[in-house]
Design a protein that fits this description.
With 346 residues, this protein is an all-alpha fold. It has one domain: A middle domain of Talin 1 (Up-down Bundle), CATH 1.20.1420. It has 14 helices and no strands.
Amino acid sequence: MWARRVLSALLILGPLVVALDRAGVAGNLVLFPLAAVALVPLAWLIGEATEQAARYTGAGIGGFLNASFGNAPELIIALVALSDGLTDVVRASLTGSVVGNLLLVLGFVLLVAQPGRIDRTSAFVSLGTVLLAVLVLLVASVPGFHGDPDRHSLAVLSLPLAIGLLSVRIAVNRRSLRRQRRMQAAAPVPTDGWSLRLALVVLGAATVSTAFVTETLVGSLEAFARQAHLSEFFVAVVIVAIVGNITEHGSAVLLARRGQLRLAAEIGVASASQVAGFLIPAVVILSWAIEPLALSMRPIELASMGAAVLLAALALLPSRTSRAAGAVLVGSYAVLVVAFYLAGNR
């Protein structure tokens, strides 16, 4: 109960951070940590609203809602960075989002939750979407291994690939949502707690607040990176990705601690699938209104996403989850963080 009260009180940090940023009375080194902390109670609020909505929609649709609303900060980060010409930062942050959801989020979910069963059909459909995205990215990336990775010809090549990938993701979403509605049709309608309308309104309001705080965070991130003597690639693939996904990270782990393993696991894999199959192609398409983005990922980015899909699939393959599998996923993420640090900029 005390944790809920603290998190509720910390919701004031969101408007405070935005006000300090707009007024110009705080430096970047103050705004960055404040904005990062402000995202934590917003993550909790999104998790609360998702849990309430899932009582009406089922775990599958609940995880989809959380993934969709939680992707707003990542989309804002990508578009803001793109407008500043930081194409490597955009690609690295999207890579880090996929890897972080599959290894860090799912790993912590399996670690803190009691071992149990999940919706393996939904999980493996999501993992299949991520694998397809990696193969599509490979097609766009290989020509960029040599020469200018941002040359216009690669951006032109990336556009139809993004449209095709987005079309597949939309078709998968429609099929998955129909399946989840059929599974939930026979479930009794809840009579206590929040109404579905209230849960959706809170989800929307929390997402809008998260978007404003994230914009402040991105604006102060570059100064933080310089002070910490870190490469732009490492900052984007680890720090920006974790911050951009903090809503999914926090809400999934909180739900797992409450015994909502099915919903928490769905959030992790659905978020990775949404980033790979929806957010990445959406950023590419929208980039043509700002600066055309080429999907020329680095070999380490492609390898890390492929490894994350494989490890997540192995962790979810048994009929029941295990904490040991969660520990392997988190440990694998730690190894990749070291590899990202050693890789440096392109």
